[in-house]
Amino acid sequence: MLTPLHWGGDRPPEGSAAGHPTAFCWPSPPFAAYPQVQPQTEALACTITGLNDKLMDGQLSALHPDQGAALVQLPPSRTTLPLRFDQFRCLCLTQPLTAPSIDQDDPAALLLAPGTATAFRITWKQGGELVGSTLGHVETPFGLFLFPPQDSSKTGAIQGVTRMFVPAAAFSSFELGPRIGELLVEQRSATQQQVEQAAAQQAQLRNKKVGDILVSRNIVTPEQLTRALDQQARMPMVRIGEALLSMGLVSEEELQEALKQQQEDRAVPLGEILVRNGIVSRADLQVAMARKMGYPLVDVDAFPVDSEALRKLPYAVATRLRVLPLLMRDNRVVIAIDDPARLHTAVEEAEFSVQTKVLPVLAQSRSIDQRIHAVYEQIGAVASGRHKGDFGQDTQVIEPMGTDQLVETLERENDDSITDDRPIEQSDNSLVRLINNMIIEAYKEGASDIHIESYPGREKIRIRFRKDGVLRTYLELPPNYRSSLIARIKIMCDLDISERRKPQDGKINFARFSSQHRIELRVATIPTNNSLEDVVMRILVSARPIPMEQLGMSARNLEQLKAAIERPYGMVLCVGPTGSGKTTTLHSALAAINQPQRKIWTAEDPIEITQPGLRQVQVNPRIDWTFAKALRAFLRADPDVIMVGEIRDEETAQMAIEASLTGHLVMSTLHTNSAPETVTRLLDMGMDPFNFADSLLAVLAQRLVRRLCTECRQSRPATPAEIDELLDDYLHAFELEAPEQPGRDALLAQWTEQHGSNGRLVRYHSPGCKHCNHTGFKGRAGLHELMVISRDLRRMVQTGERAEALKMVAQREGMRTLRQDGIDKVLAGVTTIEEVRSTSNQ
User: Fold this and answer.
1) Which CATH number is 375's domain given?
2) 427 shares a domain with 341
3) Torsions phi, psi of 819, nearest 5?
């Protein structure tokens, strides 16, 4: 039975689902005959198949792959609710998608035909199969999109397709097309006996690594093997045998090196075994693969090539990728490729170059290299000496290059006379590698963000890293690479590369491009003046909580905060600006109380830190899954502790207070400047003073400052002027002649006892070294201001006292301000007074 998530029964706000600017684009069949995908702008009739094969009709308001949910309305309910992808087997849109009529006299009629149906077989995780036919398919990390044809009962012609979505969580395997052996027998390329013999050999080799199999044949290089494995991982429908077949022969020693890199067992595909044994030719296998994959097979030697398509893809790129542009269709380029194993990579790089969508077909040609040269020569696009002798492939191995070398390559290839919108040619590969290097270096340096800034005219592109809260320039690139740089990043996170007028958000799973780096990046593109775009990428690293003792709190603050979070109910708030470490502190507090006898729920956006024992939920306001609704759901889930990532509105604040008053410990964050100001901010939001006062346990304000590099840190005796300056700064936080204000001599004596050396205070500084990149700083430290709610403070909250009065009473009870805590860390050699002043007010 389908069980939608219960989110309180409220309708999503206007624009949060289908009408959202970033609404989901339902794919269309990968053939030129069908129109380009468009964002969903209204509810669509659909049929949903449950896990028990029960069919239900409903309305699809929106599909949200990033959240793994569909927003649906299932009669008789009038409410739109989210349905998780692991709660159903497939979802079909009721309205068919039709292709426009085609003039059969059109020379391109073959390519513009709706395509032919291919058989598919899906095996469900819970048992059973779904067998049918589809006009192509689109495979994504979150599921499959299939297009079962609808034909006319009179003519049998395909009239349209049904759009079907199958979540990845529902199936264990997917097969497209008849099995390769059946195809080879049908086209008389092999006998049934030969196929059965090869199948038996395949069964014997199932548990043997593909590298071990290739050792016996001595046929590949380490680099080719690595590339083939990467191709297979990124394009599951093409097996490793076909990919390796196109890559040449090697020695056994080179293969042994590749075997050291191999991570997992792989089976040998049947087609490769047949080729290896000399049973079928490469051409026979290619025809079989074309039918299996469902792509048209085009005789490019006879096909009339469209010159507009040729001008879209530069000759240098076409020869390097060994692809031939055939025609333009609705601003999409149809290209032919002769090797199915290279299809995924070739399409991706071609899209990067033409900066629009590319539709692939499979080429049948005596020599695609000669055909590429001939058609480009006809339009005058082949420069003298540009092509290789005998039209052979450039088999030069690409050596690893550092960032400096790649920048030099781009600078050398840059031509000031070329406009920014020029097509990308030889430099595209260098640019791709530069972007990969940039992400890897940012990750290794511990940067939190990558900023790519475009400027008009001939001003260079500036790339900056934010590390330890400070931006620094990483490199600058020629202005001609503005469009191509941003287009490549958009392709990496599946954004619309043609949309430059509106901001877009996406996510890069960098493991797709570098398997040894498990990095995720959150990407935001922002249009700027002069029709340019900036990109900011946040590096998301799955972190672990830091023990509270390592947060850098004073002994008093640590003891009081631990006492607050050990309470059975109430509310603890951590406040500060964005990037001040609030989430890190809350997760450290949760780790301290994370015990088997407690149930802890968290609602976060996004989930940046994970730890066992927590039930963590990521909210998504676009589908009306807000912090407030998550809180309401948690209260029905028997919690002991609730952590809310941020109090953004009055509803969330009210729910947090109610939860803390009904026997739960609630932790959350807020964007305020100090602990006392937090109280007045929530009262100004309309919170009931008595309920709020009863619920509040403690407020921790914090900032992050850069930490002095311990490798090059030096010390010297502090001068009297420097000591007086620190004393003035520290005492200025108290009201004039306040009774809690310590005397200068007493404070100096206390500092000397705690931080002095040989009876004198010490001043620290770091001149810079290779460990800190000659900045003098490495890492960050926290400044803390903890206000524990006492009886006096609770009474003041109930009467609505202002922040200044709360601060005076809190200081009388022992609270130290951010500035005062920072001065203590200056005296301890953790940071500098300049860092403290830049992040805290008096």
Assistant:
1) 3.30.300.160
2) no
3) -65, -45
